[in-house]
Amino acid sequence: MDVFEAMNSRRSEHNFLPNRKLTKEQIDLILEMASLTPSGYNVQPWHFCLVEEPERKQELAEIAFGQSHVADAALNIVVLGDLDFYKHGEEVADL
């Protein structure tokens, strides 16, 4: 698939089955794929926070301007950027 086909076929799904649960294997695969995402100098300045608890998903939905599909999703993955990654010393300087 070329880049234009990928961009044209991209979709945002918002119709989730509220009671659906993901298996540990499914979650591990999602996180593995996310960890392969390229970053500048391959620093990967991010951390992933998994949110499965209904109360926390509802809080996220409220933060996300009341988007109910956030609460309906089986899992929310919050990506936290490490804005201070450059302070970690030699591992970044050696790149």
Structure description:
The chain is 40% helix and 13% strand. With 95 residues, the chain is of the alpha+beta class. The model has no long low-confidence stretch (mean pLDDT 87). It has a two-stranded antiparallel ribbon.
Topology overview:
Layout: H1 3-9, H2 24-35, E1 46-51, H3 54-63, H4 68-72, E2 76-81, H5 90-93
Antiparallel strand pairs: 1-2
Concise summary:
The chain has 95 residues and is α+β, with helices and mostly antiparallel strands. It contains 5 helices and 2 strands; from the N terminus they run ααβααβα. It has helices spanning 3-9, 24-35, 54-63, 68-72, 90-93; strands spanning 46-51, 76-81.
What features would you highlight for this structure?
95 residues, 40% helix, 2 strands, two-stranded antiparallel ribbon, alpha+beta, globular, 5 helices
Rg (C-alpha, Å): 17 Å
The termini sit apart by 31 Å
Which segments are poorly predicted (pLDDT under 50) over 5 or more consecutive residues?
none
Order of helices and strands: HHEHHEH
The largest sheet has its strands arranged as 1-2
Helix content: 40-55%
Briefly note the structural class of the backbone.
Answer: alpha+beta
Major sheet attributes:
2 strands, antiparallel
Mean of all residue-level pLDDT scores: 87
